[in-house]
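Appendix C: a fully annotated inverse folding record. The material below is reproduced so that readers can follow the format used throughout the book. The structure is listed first as tokens, followed by the designed sequence.
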């Protein structure tokens, strides 16, 4: 990975004085029942990985931690992405990437941890963002699990990322009509709002219009990559947030994460069928709308890698949601059967139809049928 600041990130250098690998040491707190070894099993790159064996549950996470000599120099206010490729011996394992903060005098001043749940037993890259606090001059990474069993770790990375400049469209005319203060903020995925929207775009539009009318004391932010094609002039509590500098494939890890952290949103609504955002947002509850499960039911229509990605990640994402909305009872049954989601967590809310969908006069239908079939 470009600009990765981690020394011996792929564990190819063997035989360090403090442990089995240069630049790393055991973070298992000396318990003789845990083992950290260099292994040729399941590397994500190169020929080696780190293998952690932990037969007992401990109050703290076990794994590996960078030696202080290999700490990464940082500055307050910078934003960094920490990541690691990990493989567990069973799904549902609680994985951790922890960042220990040190001041200029070399004193430990705090820590920040990223929590993940392994979706399957295949090697997967787990990643998250952290903002460097005041008074911190260096960071050491700790990677491991707060669980029992076996875990393989490879390709640990710590990379500085640029902050996404988020623009908010808030016209003066809206501010003057809005009830202040609006302390509650709900974020909604607004990327499907187009000049000629499809099913999900129409759903998102109607959802926002009804929510904004029913609850005028909440600010609804529609998050996008680009400028919106239209606004909601009748609803002063509907705003757009977007970034022209953020690519669509980085929308989730950069714009979404940064917005939720900065504005302290109380809820995020994923309206894009649950398929576009497959990373949990532990600092903000989220709701998912599932319109269908076509990629998992008609696999031949989609690339196998895409289907495998959904199979590994969608169940975990749905189980982490506060609620799941389906647009039909059939989709609700599919979700319960495919992922074992309890019925109490699902709500069926039909998508509805536009005013153009209405019964036609009988004479008009009769005339159309006669003309169509030459009767």
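Designed amino acids, in order:
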């Amino acid at each position: 990975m470009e600009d990765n600041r981690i020394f011996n990130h792929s564990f190819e250098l063997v035989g360090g004085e403090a442990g089995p690998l240069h630049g790393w040491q055991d973070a298992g707190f000396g318990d003789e029942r845990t083992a950290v070894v260099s292994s040729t099993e399941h590397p994500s790159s190169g020929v080696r990985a780190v293998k952690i064996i932990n037969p007992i549950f401990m109050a703290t996470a076990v794994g590996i931690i960078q030696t202080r000599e290999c700490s990464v120099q940082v500055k307050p206010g910078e934003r960094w992405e920490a990541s690691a490729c990990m493989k567990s011996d069973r799904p549902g394992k609680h994985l951790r990437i922890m960042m220990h903060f040190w001041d200029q005098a070399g004193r430990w001043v705090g820590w920040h941890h990223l929590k993940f749940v392994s979706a399957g037993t295949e090697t997967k890259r787990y990643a998250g963002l952290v903002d460097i606090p005041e008074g911190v001059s260096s960071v050491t990474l700790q990677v491991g699990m707060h669980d029992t069993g076996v875990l393989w770790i490879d390709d640990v990375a710590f990379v500085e990322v640029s902050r996404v400049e988020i623009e908010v469209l808030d016209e003066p005319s809206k501010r003057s009509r809005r009830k202040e203060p609006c302390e509650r903020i709900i974020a909604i995925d607004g990327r499907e709002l187009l000049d000629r929207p499809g099913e999900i775009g129409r759903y998102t539009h109607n959802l926002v219009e009804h929510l904004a009318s029913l609850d005028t004391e909440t600010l609804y932010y529609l998050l996008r990559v680009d400028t919106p094609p239209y606004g909601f002039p009748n609803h002063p509590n509907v705003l757009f947030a977007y970034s022209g500098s953020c690519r669509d494939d980085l929308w989730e890890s950069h714009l979404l994460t940064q917005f939720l952290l900065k504005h302290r949103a109380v809820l995020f609504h994923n309206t894009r069928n649950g398929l576009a955002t497959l990373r949990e947002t532990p600092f903000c509850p989220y709701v998912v709308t599932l319109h269908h499960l076509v990629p998992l039911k008609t696999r031949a229509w989609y690339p196998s890698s895409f289907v495998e990605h959904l199979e590994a990640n969608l169940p975990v994402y749905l189980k982490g949601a506060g609620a799941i909305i389906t647009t039909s009872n059939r989709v609700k049954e599919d979700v319960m059967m495919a992922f074992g989601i309890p019925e109490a967590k699902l709500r069926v809310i039909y998508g509805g139809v536009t005013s153009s969908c209405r019964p036609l006069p009988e004479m008009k239908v009769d005339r159309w049928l006669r003309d169509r079939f030459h009767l």
